[in-house]
């Protein structure tokens, strides 16, 4: 079991410093060329790997050009184009509906505020944060995906279980200049080392400050369950 820093703010800064050194080129892994493609890619990425989304959107983005094309696409046709994506029927509905709103209310442009984005079908705060950060260069929160959720709890940065309260706690302890990068660092580390089922604590740059470290700790704080 590692020994975390005395305060969560100190712990968060140490986590950022170490992960930044370990993953100097950390960035978003979804591929897109404009704000609409980014929005669609993030909607599709819910409970689906970025790798799978990138494979699917390569052809999708060639087939549909602009929000009108998605809004006017038959539901069955768009769903078929997404059939290797998890929950593809629902996601096709979300994309069609969101694009209808973008055409009708925003002159075909992806909106640039949290409230407007979260009013779109299929868009929650996590998706909106990604679009704001990478589509509009607006950082007003921290994207809490499954990796951020898991690592934040394992590292003792939060006791909260759900994304929105986790985000609020992280915003209080992660330096504001790192709100965007914190997510990418957690994603890279979560994929490479701190995996959900069998984290490689022996080769982890955070093991000595991680209260979930398997060497001595009996509990995975991400799940509040024994290892």
TrEMBL record:
List of residues binding [4Fe-4S] cluster: 194, 201, 204, 210
GO molecular function: 4 iron, 4 sulfur cluster binding; class I DNA-(apurinic or apyrimidinic site) endonuclease activity; DNA binding; G/T mismatch-specific thymine-DNA glycosylase activity; metal ion binding
The reaction(s) this protein catalyses: Hydrolyzes mismatched double-stranded DNA and polynucleotides, releasing free thymine; 2'-deoxyribonucleotide-(2'-deoxyribose 5'-phosphate)-2'-deoxyribonucleotide-DNA = a 3'-end 2'-deoxyribonucleotide-(2,3-dehydro-2,3-deoxyribose 5'-phosphate)-DNA + a 5'-end 5'-phospho-2'-deoxyribonucleoside-DNA + H(+)
Cofactor(s) required for function per UniProt: [4Fe-4S] cluster
Cofactor binding summary note: Binds 1 [4Fe-4S] cluster.
UniProt keyword annotations, A-Z: 4Fe-4S, DNA damage, DNA repair, DNA-binding, Endonuclease, Glycosidase, Hydrolase, Iron, Iron-sulfur, Lyase, Metal-binding, Nuclease
Extent of the signal sequence: none
Protein EC: 4.2.99.18
Any GO BP: base-excision repair, AP site formation
Gene3D superfamilies for this protein: Helix-hairpin-Helix base-excision DNA repair enzymes (C-terminal), Hypothetical protein, domain 2
HhH-GPD domain span: 44-192
Family the UniProt entry places it in: Belongs to the Nth/MutY family.
Protein name in UniProt: Endonuclease III
Organism: Natrialba swarupiae
Organism lineage string: Archaea, Methanobacteriati, Methanobacteriota, Stenosarchaea group, Halobacteria
């Amino acid at each position: 079991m590692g020994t975390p820093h005395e305060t969560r703010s100190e712990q968060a800064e140490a986590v950022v410093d170490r992960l930044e050194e370990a993953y100097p080129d950390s960035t978003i892994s979804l591929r897109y060329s404009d704000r609409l493609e980014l929005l669609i890619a993030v909607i599709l990425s819910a409970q689906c790997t970025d790798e799978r989304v990138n494979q699917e959107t390569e052809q999708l983005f060639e087939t549909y050009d602009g929000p009108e094309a998605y809004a006017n696409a038959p539901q069955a046709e768009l769903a078929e184009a997404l059939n290797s994506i998890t929950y593809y029927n629902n996601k096709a509905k979300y994309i069609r509906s969101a694009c209808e709103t973008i055409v009708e209310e925003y002159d075909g442009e992806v909106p640039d505020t949290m409230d407007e984005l979260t009013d779109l079908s299929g868009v929650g705060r996590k998706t909106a944060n990604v679009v704001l950060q990478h589509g509009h260069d607006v950082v007003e929160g921290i994207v809490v995906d499954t990796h951020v959720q898991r690592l934040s709890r394992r590292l003792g940065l939060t006791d909260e279980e759900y994304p929105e309260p986790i985000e609020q706690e992280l915003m209080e302890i992660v330096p504001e200049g790192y709100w965007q990068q914190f997510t990418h660092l957690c994603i890279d580390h979560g994929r490479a080392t701190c995996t959900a089922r069998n984290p490689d604590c022996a080769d982890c740059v955070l093991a000595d400050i991680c209260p979930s470290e398997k060497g001595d700790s009996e509990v995975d704080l991400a799940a509040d369950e024994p290892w």
